[in-house]
Write a structure and sequence with these properties.
alpha+beta, 5-stranded mixed β-sheet
């Protein structure tokens, strides 16, 4: 029996994490290329609040995004994305449990696809699996973060 001043140790609840990868067609109501600055500002604010991390690419009218976080938060975010008028034809490529986040510390990082080979561009925007897309996006994010150091 424990005294009133003693506390019973409870095991820490391990945080459940998932990774979700999707593609969607970008819809822009204005003329010219889509400006990602507004998308990024909203993503950073909302993802930070939801404890979601991730990376976003926009290439030739296709959004490609890797998101990581609590499964319920990811489900809620995907509902928001599917309802967002800037996205059409949202396709979840994969969703799986993970042990750790690749983009820790980044509520959202935008990655550039300008220097991708045609093969990697096609993999990213058309044919790649969730794991393949994650690898390409993570490499692009690491290159971007490395150039900022």
């Amino acid at each position: 029996m424990t005294s009133p001043t003693e506390t019973t140790r409870q095991p820490l609840r391990e945080r459940v994490l998932e990774r979700l990868v999707y593609r969607s067609d970008a819809v822009d109501g204005s003329e010219g290329p889509m400006d990602l600055s507004e998308v990024m500002a909203i993503s950073v604010r909302n993802n930070g609040r939801r404890r979601i991390t991730g990376a976003l690419a926009l290439h030739d009218g296709v959004f490609v995004q890797v998101l990581e976080g609590d499964p319920e938060a990811l489900t809620a975010l995907m509902g928001d994305i599917e309802a967002d008028a800037r996205h059409r034809n949202v396709r979840v490529l994969a969703r799986w449990p993970i042990q750790a986040q690749l983009f820790i510390g980044w509520a959202m990082v935008a990655v550039s696809t300008r220097k991708l080979s045609p093969h990697l561009t096609k993999l990213l925007t058309q044919t790649g699996s969730g794991a393949q897309v994650t690898t390409v996006i993570a490499d692009l994010a690491n290159a971007r973060l490395g150039s900022m150091a």
